[in-house]
Amino acid sequence: MRPRRGFRASGRGFLALLAWGLLPDLADAEVLAFRNDTGAPIVVQGACFAQGTVQRDRPYRLQPGEACRINLPGNKLITMYNARMPNQVLFKTTIPAGPEDLYFSVRLDPQGKVCIERIKPPR
């Protein structure tokens, strides 16, 4: 028995409709890049709330001058830890979802606290 032509076409239409429904999540999945400019090793970890659960990205240990890229959908919770004392949180922020990739430099402010500063993308 051969499948009907209309059934095959409706199956493709269903797949296209399913893909279209996923596009808003994909559109908000921009990449966040962090470069360690503090002079000491740090750990950067991202998390997001998707599909009813918290999804954590793996922790990235960054030596001075190293960089990492975090690619998660939606709003992202970014936490930075002291690499020598992992239970010591140095910085925590939420970065809202957006359509473009963002690049940050992790630096020390004048008081000696860790902060992030948005920078231009590398060429």
Helices, strands, pairings?
Elements: H1 5-27, E1 31-36, E2 42-50, E3 53-56, E4 60-62, E5 67-71, E6 76-82, E7 89-95, E8 102-108, E9 114-119
Parallel strand pairs: 1-8
Antiparallel strand pairs: 1-5, 2-3, 2-4, 2-6, 6-7, 8-9
Question: Describe it for me?
Answer:
The protein has one helix at 5-27; strands spanning 31-36, 42-50, 53-56, 60-62, 67-71, 76-82, 89-95, 102-108, 114-119. The protein is of the alpha+beta class and 123 residues long. The strands form two sheets. Strands 2, 3, 4, 6 and 7 form a five-stranded antiparallel sheet that branches. A hairpin with a 5-residue loop joins strand 8 (102-108) and strand 9.
Which stretches are low in confidence, meaning pLDDT under 50 for 5 or more residues running? Answer: 13-28
Distance between the termini: 57 Å
Question: Whole-number average pLDDT?
Answer: 83
Proportion of residues in β-strands? 35-45%
Largest sheet: 5 strands, antiparallel
The class by helix and strand makeup works out as alpha+beta
List the total number of helices. Answer: 1
* Strand/helix succession: HEEEEEEEEE
Query: What is the tally of beta strands?
Result: 9
Give the fraction of residues assigned to helices: 10-25%
C-alpha Rg (nearest Å): 20 Å
Overall morphology: globular
Which oligomeric state applies? single chain
